[in-house]
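Model: Ready when you are.
Researcher: Fold this.
Model:
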Amino acid sequence: MEYVEESTELMTEVVTSYGGGAETTVHELSHETDFTSIVDYYRTQVEQSADDDEVAIDVTPGRKFMSAIAFQAGIQFGADHVYYFHRKAGGYYGQFYPEIPRTATDLIDFTEVL
C-alpha cells in the first residue's frame, strides 16, 4: 500500500504541473480474481464520464489478466482511447519515462489500430 500513496502524489504533481486538476480514488479488490468487480470498475468509469470528457484506458501496467480485462472493457464500453506503452528497447527497464529516448518507445492506441 506504500506505493499507492507515493504513486498518487506523483500523479497529482504531474497533472498539476500541466495545468490540470486531479481527483484520485483508490479501489481495492477483496480478491485479485474478482473479475466481475474489475469489469464493473472500468464500465462505470467509461459510462459515468461526461459527454465532453475524453476517456483513456492504459493497459500497460499491472498483471496480465488486469491488462486483458482493461483492454476488453475499454473497447467494449467505448473508451475514446485504449493505450499501450511499448518500450522497443529492453535496456531502459527501471528508468523514468523522461530518461528513455523517444525513439526507444511507441504509444499505441488500439482504438486506432483495431
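Researcher: Now this one.
Model:
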Amino acid sequence: MTLILFTSCFQERKIGQLKVSGIENTFVNIYQKDEFDFVTPLYYEIVDSDKNQILEKYRLIGTNDHITDLENFKAKSYDSIVYLIWGNESDIYAVYDLKSGKGYPKSKLNENWKSELENGTELVNELKEINPNLSANWNK
C-alpha cells in the first residue's frame, strides 16, 4: 500500500490540449509531473486529430507552479511553424516547423542541443518578421 501511494505521487498528469490556431487538426498537449520537489517539469507534445504524435512528448520547462489549466498557454502558427506561448503573449517557449522537422526544445532531426537551439532561434526570427514583439524565452 505504501508503495502504491508513494509511486502515485510521481505520476504525470495531462493538464489539457490546445488547438493550434491557423492549422487544422493539430494540437499541443501539456503535461506536468506531480513530484515532491520545489520545481516540477512541464512536458509538451504535438498531435493530430487522430491523436497520432507529430512530435513526441518532451520537456518544456521546470516550474514551481502547480498548473491546473491552460488559461495562460496559447498554441499558434504561421505557415508550417507551430509555437507555444506561456504567460506573456510575446514569449515563445517551444517552436516546431511541421515541414522541416526543426524545432526547439525538440526536433525530429536527431541533432545535438546546440543545433536545436540554433534552429529554434532561426524559426523564432522567421516569426519575428510577422510579429516583431515575439522573442525566444530561451534567449533571455
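Researcher: Key takeaway?
Model: Confidence is low (pLDDT under 50) at residues 1-8.
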